[in-house]
Amino acid sequence: MQAGQCWQCESPAENNLFCKFCNSLQRPLTDYYAFFGLEHKLNIDNEDLQRRFYQLSKLLHPDRYTRRAQRERDYSLEATAILNDGYRVLRDPVKRAEYILAEQGFEVGEQRAKDVPPELLEEVFELNMALEELVSGASSVRPQLEEARSRFRAMRREADERLGDLYKLWDASGERDSLVAVRGELNRRKYIENLITEVEKALSA
Amino acid sequence: MGTFQIDFSNSRKQRVVGIDLGTTNSLVAYMDVTAPKVIPGEDGEPLVPSVVSLTEAGEIIVGNPALQALITHPDRTIYSVKRLMGRGIDDVTEELKLFPFRVAGSGESVLKLSLGEKTFSPPEISAFILRQLKRNAEAALGEEVRQAVITVPAYFNDAQRQATKDAGRIAGLEVQRLVNEPTAAALAYGLDKRKDGVVAVYDFGGGTFDISILRLHEGIFEVLATGGDTHLGGDDIDNLLLKIALEDIESEWKQDLSGNGEAVQTLRRAVINAKHELSRLPAVTLVFDYAGKQYRRELTRPVFEKLILPIIERTLAPCRHCMNDAGLEPEKIDEVVLVGGSTRIPLVRASVERLFRAKPHTELNPDQVVALGAAVQAAILSGDVQDKLLLDVTPLSLGIEIMGGLVSRILHRNSTIPASATEVFTTAVEGQTNVLIHVLQGERELVKDCRSLARFDLKGIDPAPAGLARIEVRFLIDANGILNVSARDLRAGKEQSVEVKPSYGLTDDQVEAMILESIDKAQDDFQERQLREARVEADAILAAVEKARQNDAYFDLEESDRDLITRGLNELLVVYHGEDHLLVRAKIDQLNQATMKLAENMMNTAVNQALKGTKI
C-alpha cells in the first residue's frame, strides 16, 4: 500500500475517513479541526461540535468494529481516540486556542509563577498573606478570601470576554499579531485561574 | 433408533454473553430475540454466589454448594475475592483483618491465596466462577460459549481491570469488552427510549460503590463523570454487625469466638439474614446457636439505621464530587437508577432520593440489572443491537513520575475513552540507552499517594549526547479502560521497544501458564459432560430397543438380523460404564444401524394396521 491509497482496495484515498470505493475505514487524520471537518477558527459553535462528535462516534467507535479485520479495528481505536481527544480540546475555548497557537509555532508551556501580571502584583501579595494566615488557623481572614475569590472570578469573566473579541479578530484577519495578543491574554487568564484554584483549595480545607 | 438429524450449528454466529462478576453474587445473561434474559444455574437459581471451595477430594465447587461449604469447611472456601483483584500484598492488610483470606507466600507481586492444600491467585479464583457461568450458559443455550462481556466497577483501576480480563482468559473466555457496572445498568433500563436527559446511576453492591452520571441522546449513552469507592459495600455493613455481635457474645458467654472459623461464618450468615429482613420488617431477632448455647438479640430498624449511617454517608461524598465533575446541580438530574443489593435498604433509598431530589428507579431487580445490561452491550458488539452506543470515561487521572517524586498529569479523569496522550522523553546523561517511565493513576500530586500502574522501559536508544534523543511515547487508554503504551524514536524514525513491568498483577507468561493448566481442566470438564450426554442417549436407545423386542416385527426378522441387534445391545452395555464417550457414541451408532431394518418393519406394520382400520 502506498500513501494516499486505500489499504484495502488500493483506490486513491483523499484524506477521507472511509474509502469512497470499498467503504473500509482508513488511517485517521490527526489534525483535530480536519478530523471534525471544521475550519481552523478560534470561535466554534459548541452545539454543532457536539452534533459532529455524536455522529462520528456512531461511525467510528470500536464497538462497531469487533467483527471486522484487525486493520480496521486498529484504525477504529486510533480514530476514536483522536475524536475524543479532539472533542476535549475543541469544546474548551482555552485549550482550543492553545492548540491553534501550538499549530502556528508558538511555544505553549506551563505558566511560571514568576510571570505575575504587573497590575496584579499588589493583589497577589495581599492574597498570599491571607492564605498564610488561614493555614496558621486564623479563620478571621475567611471573608477576605471569599471576597478575593469573587473578585478573581469576575476578572476571569472579563478575560474570557476579551479573549472572545481577540478570537473574532484572528478568525477574521488571520494575522499573527492577533495571535500574539491571544497568547498574552491566555497567560494572564491562566494566572488568574491558578489563583482561584488556590483560594478554593484553602477555603474548602 | 435410526433417526434423521439436522445440524444447525454451522449457521449460527458466535454468541457473546454478558457476565456480572460480582463481589457477592455473579450471573450470566444473554440477548434473547428482543430482551436480555438471565440464565439460571444448575440449581435453577439466577444468582451464583461468588464463593469457591475445594473439596477434600480435590474438586472445585462454585456457587450455592460452596456457600454451604463456607460453614462446614471455612478453611477450604473463599468468598468476596473481587476485593483482592489487582491488588498487592501491601494493600490488603486491612482486608485480612476482616476477611478469612489466607495469603500463601509473600514477596511476589501477585497475591496467592491458599484453599486447602492448594494455592491460587485471585484471577484464578474468579476464573472458577466464570467457568461455572460459562457452563451454565452452554447448558441453557445448547452451544459452546467462547465470548463474553464482563462488567467491572466503574471506579476499578487499571490493575483491577487487567486482573478481571486475565480471569476471563484463564476461564477460556475471549473478553470482548469490560463494561462499567453503572453504565451497563443504564443500558438495561433503556431510558434512552423515553427522552433525552441526564441520568445518575447509584450502584451500591456487596463490595464496591460506584456513581456515574450520563447524558442520553438519540441512543448514545455518554458518561459525563464517574466516581466511587472500590472498597465500600454491603460487606462493610456485615462486618460491622458481625463485630458488634462477637463483642456482645464475648461479654455474655465470656468466650471469644472471633478465631473460630465455623462459628464466625455461622454468625455472619445470621447477621446477613437479619440485615436482609430489616429491609422489609421494622424489627428482627438475631438468633445464633452454638455448642449448646443460644445468643438472641433484638435489632430494630432505627438502631440498625443509626449503626449503618456512617457507611451510607461515605457514598454521598463521591456523589457530590461526581455532580461537580459533570458540572451539574442536583436539579439537572432527570432520573436516578438504583443498582446493587444494598440499595434494597430503605435508608439508602431515602438518602439517595434526598440527595438527587428525584424518586429513584427500582423497577428492575437490582441484583440482575448489571448482567442484563452486559447482555445488551454484548448484543451491541455482535451487531444485533445497532441503535445504542456507550461512551464511557476513565475514572482516574493518568500521570507519569517526574523529578522530586511528583506526578505530572497527562490524562484527566472523566476523559471519554478511548483516549490518548503523547509525551516526548529524552536522555539525562551521555550514552544513555534506556529510559524508565513510571506510570501512575490517581488524583494526588505525590507519587507515594498515587497508585503505581507500571514501569515502562524504553530500550535500545542509540547512544548520543545527553538530551539529544527524542522518544515520543503514546499512552492510549482503550475502550476497556486499560492502558496501552507505544513509543517511537523520533530521530531514527523507528518504533521503539517498550518493556512493561506491571506493578501489580500477573505477567503475560503467568497468565499463559494458567490458561494452559485450565485448558487441561476444561478438557476434563468437557469430557465428563460429553460422557454424561452419551450415556443419556444410550439409555434412550436401550429402552427403545428393549421395547421393540416385544414387537411382532422383531420376530419377523431374519435370525442374522436379530443376532446383530443382540450383539449391538451387549456391546453398548459393555462400554456404557467406561470413560470413553466416543466409544459409547460408536456403539450407539452401531446399534442404530443394526435396528434399521426392525424400525422399517415396525413402521410398515403400523402403516398397514392403520390402513386396515380405514374404510376406503
Kindly name the structural category of chain A. Answer: mainly alpha
Order of helical and strand elements of chain A: HHHHHHH
Largest sheet of chain A: none
The greatest inter-chain interface is formed by: A-B, 17 and 23 residues
What is the correct CATH architecture of the largest domain in chain B? Answer: 2-Layer Sandwich
Q: Provide the CATH top-level class of the largest domain in chain B.
A: Alpha Beta
Which percent bin holds the helix content of chain B? 25-40%
CATH superfamily placement of the largest domain in chain A: DnaJ domain
**Estimated radius of gyration of chain A:** 23 Å
Q: What is the number of E strands of chain A?
A: 0
Alpha plus pi helix count of chain B: 15
Low-confidence stretches of chain B: 1-12
Q: What value does the average pLDDT of chain A take?
A: 85
Shape of chain B: globular
- Looking at CATH, which topology of the largest domain in chain B would you report? Nucleotidyltransferase, domain 5
Mean pLDDT of chain B: 87
Strand adjacency order, main sheet of chain B:
20-19-22-23-26-25-24-21
Overall shape of chain A: elongated
- Give the domain tally of chain A: 2
How would you sum up this structure, described in words?
- By secondary structure, chain A is mostly helical.
- Chain A folds into two domains: 1-91, Orthogonal Bundle (Helix Hairpins), CATH 1.10.287.110; 118-204.
- Helices cover 62% and strands 0% of the residues of chain A.
- Chain A contains seven helices and no strands.
- Chain A has helices spanning 32-36, 46-60, 70-90, 93-103, 121-135, 142-173, 176-204.
- Chain A is elongated.
- The N and C termini of chain A lie far apart (59 Å).
- Helix content of chain B is 39%, strand content 25%.
- Chain B has 15 helices and 26 strands.
- In chain B, a hairpin with a 4-residue loop joins strand 2 and strand 3 (36-39).
- The radius of gyration of chain B is 30 Å and the shape is globular.
- Residues 1-12 of chain B have low confidence and may be disordered.
- The A-B interface holds A 54, 57-58, 61-64, 66-67, 77, 80-82, 84-85, 87-88 and B 176-177, 217-218, 220, 377, 380-383, 389-391, 415-421, 476, 478-479.
